[in-house]
Specification:
By secondary structure, the protein is mostly helical. It has one domain. It contains four helices and no strands.
Length: about 100
């Protein structure tokens, strides 16, 4: 039987877990966070972005939701730039003749 991988899991794999955990340590994101781990939170936010889902009221979406109240925004900024670099790097090799 062939193993299959959902499109969402392929997107999540673009953010390597070990690199993410290093960013969490560097930014101290788990220090005052309650509830979800930083990894669970970023995966949930990615899922909601892809599904265009809305959690709670319009004021409490994305980075402003209660789960992110005590997480530094710098964590998500660094994840974004790492992901952007990774996608850009892959796109260069896909367009080469």
């Amino acid at each position: 039987m062939k193993a299959s991988c959902s499109m969402f899991s392929q997107i999540v794999k673009l953010v390597p877990r070990l690199e993410f955990e290093k960013l969490v340590r560097d930014t101290g994101a788990e220090r005052a966070a309650k509830g979800l781990s930083s990894w669970s939170q970023v995966v949930a936010m990615m899922f909601c972005q892809l599904r265009r889902a809305h959690w709670g009221s319009r004021r409490r979406r994305g980075l402003r939701c209660p789960a992110n109240r005590h997480r530094p925004w710098q964590l998500y900024e660094q994840v974004f730039y790492q992901l952007l670099d990774r996608i850009y790097f892959h796109s260069i090799f896909l367009t080469l003749p």
